[in-house]
Design brief:
The protein has 10 helices and 11 strands. The chain is α/β, with parallel strands linked by helices. The chain has 2 domains: about 100 residues, NIF3 (NGG1p interacting factor 3)-like (Udp-n-acetylmuramoylalanyl-d-glutamate--2,6- Diaminopimelate Ligase, Chain: A, domain 1, 3-Layer(aba) Sandwich); about 120 residues, Udp-n-acetylmuramoylalanyl-d-glutamate--2,6- Diaminopimelate Ligase, Chain: A, domain 1, CATH 3.40.1390.30. The strands form 2 sheets. Strands 5-6-8-9-10-7 form a 6-stranded mixed β-sheet. The protein has a 5-stranded mixed β-sheet with strand order 1-4-3-2-11, sandwiched between helices. Helix 3 links the parallel strand 3 and strand 4. The protein starts with a helix and ends in a 9-residue tail after the last strand.
């Protein structure tokens, strides 16, 4: 299977029509669309370390969630972080595909993977401004916010999460991986008693108990990273002979 053929497969499974208007993703870097894909590196982010691993260990392709190129780059010359990675990958023959908000929104994407792993039932989309990226569903039974937060840590691998407890049992849960601070009102308007996302604003956390809202801030990386396994499954679906490795791309440490 070539780079072009694999990208066409992803375009069908994760349609560009689901992307937010402000987003930039797709085939980010492609020195040879006819190159045979034998080894793929899957990561949430195309960091310099991920790019270097792909080059050093002979991968043909990187598939990521966060775009390699998100904002316009003014020149492809050494000395700028994104341009340095693009140059390194292009000169080494490594392609990059990134699937961002469309992977958030698609059935079986970032948020459905997270919802399923947390045991939510009757899951359906929610969102604002016509962008139904988040997911909302029910637990099989009510549990405390602390107990649910421990489940979030276990599922995502986060070392800690932050909670703001309104004293309500957790039953109808809305979630949005990554930065979902702008969707909090939509989550509660959809009937959630608890909202889980990667990033929230300080005032949202401090005001939540006063507004009768349970909040969990689980970390941007941790609430999205479970989708990497789904990307591996999709690649295997199109060609089981492709060697796929998932790499942890998070450079952030807790001390």
């Amino acid at each position: 299977m070539t780079v072009a053929e694999l990208y066409a497969f992803f375009e069908e499974k994760i349609p560009r029509a689901l992307s937010c208007d402000w987003d930039n993703d797709g085939l980010m870097c492609c020195p040879d669309q006819n190159r045979e894909v034998r080894r793929v590196l899957v990561a949430l982010d195309v960091t310099a370390a991920v790019a270097e691993k792909a080059v050093r260990e002979g991968y043909d392709l990187i598939v990521s969630h966060h775009p390699l190129i998100f904002r316009p780059i003014r020149a492809v010359s050494p000395g700028e972080a994104v341009a340095d990675k693009v140059l390194r990958l292009l000169l080494s023959g490594v392609s990059v595909m990134s699937f961002h908000t469309r992977l958030d929104a698609v059935a079986g994407g970032v948020n459905e993977v997270l919802a399923e792993s947390l045991g939510l039932c009757d899951v359906e989309p929610f969102g604002q401004n016509g962008e139904a990226i988040g997911r909302i569903g029910y637990l099989k039974e009510e549990i405390s916010l602390v107990a649910f937060a421990e489940r979030v840590k276990c599922v995502t691998g986060a070392e800690y999460v932050q909670i703001s407890d309104a004293g309500l049992p957790v039953y109808r849960v809305a979630l949005l991986g990554g930065n979902g601070s702008d969707d909090a009102d939509a989550a509660f308007a959809a009937g959630a008693d608890t909202y889980l996302t990667g990033e929230l604003k300080h005032h949202q956390l401090t005001e939540a108990p006063e507004r009768g809202r349970n909040l969990i801030m689980g970390g941007h990386f941790y609430t999205e990273n479970p989708v990497c396994e789904r990307l591996r499954e999709l690649i295997a679906e199109t060609d089981a002979g492709i060697d796929v490795e998932i790499v942890n791309s998070n450079p952030v440490q807790f001390i």
